[in-house]
Amino acid sequence: MQKTAIIVPCYKEAARLQPEIFVRFLQQRSDADFVMVDDGSPDNTAEVLATLAASVPGRIHIISLKQNSGKAEAVRQGLLYAIKTPDYSFAGYLDADLSTSPEEFIRLKDILANDSLDYVLGSRIKTLQSSIQRSQFRHVTGRFIATLIDTKYRLGIYDTQCGAKCFRIDLLQQIIEQPFTTKWFFDVELLLRIRNLQTACRGSEIPLRRWHDPGGSRLSIWKSPEVMADMWRLFNHYKRNTHE
Known about the structure:
Layout: E1 3-10, H1 19-28, E2 32-39, H2 45-55, E3 60-65, H3 71-83, E4 88-93, H4 102-114, E5 119-123, E6 131-133, H5 136-153, E7 165-168, H6 169-175, H7 186-195, E8 203-207, E9 210-212, H8 224-237
Parallel strand pairs: 1-2, 1-4, 2-3, 5-8, 6-9
Antiparallel strand pairs: 4-7, 5-7
C-alpha cells in the first residue's frame, strides 16, 4: 500500500484545531498519516497535539520546533520527516484550519497517482461546481501577488499560494534539502526548484471543489510591507531564466 504523509504546520493553533475532523479522517483512511509540526507555539498547542496523537496511536506524528521559525520552515521540516520515513510514497501539506479538507487533499493525491504525475497543486478557482469562500481582501491580495509572480516567472499557475499541494517522495528528495529563502513564498520556491531540475517533471493544477476560510488568517493589510519585502527577496534570489 502506498501511503501519504499530510504535513500540518501549527503555530498558536490550540483554539482553532478541530481534533474530531483529524480523528474521523484517519479512522476512515488507512493509507494516510498526519505529521503535525508545532512551530514553537507559546500557547498550549503542544498539549492539544499530544492529546490528538494519543487518540489515534501511530497515525499522527509530532515534530516540535524549539522556536518559531515560520510556516515555510515548519512545512519543510515535516516534508523532511516524510522523505526519511520509508512508509511514504507521497507527501504534501494542508493548513491547520483545514480550509482545504483532508478528503479534498486525498482527491488531489489520487489524481497524482492515477495520472502518473509528479506533483499536483490545489487551486481556488471559483466555478459553478465549486464552493470557494474567502474574504475579498484575501482574494484581491492573492490575485495581485499571483499576477506579479506570473509576470516575473511565467509559471502559468493560477493560484501558487493555495495551501494544498502533494508531491511524490522522490521529487521532494530533490527540492527540499535547502532551507527556503522566503517566509511567504515558499510555495513559489518549490515550483521554481522543480522547474530548475535537470529532469522534466509532470504536474497539474487541480481546481478545488470546496475551500472555506474560517477566519483568523495571519495575513492582513498590516503585513503588506513584510510580504512585499519577501517578494523582493524571492525575485532577487531566483532569477528568471537561471538555475538556483
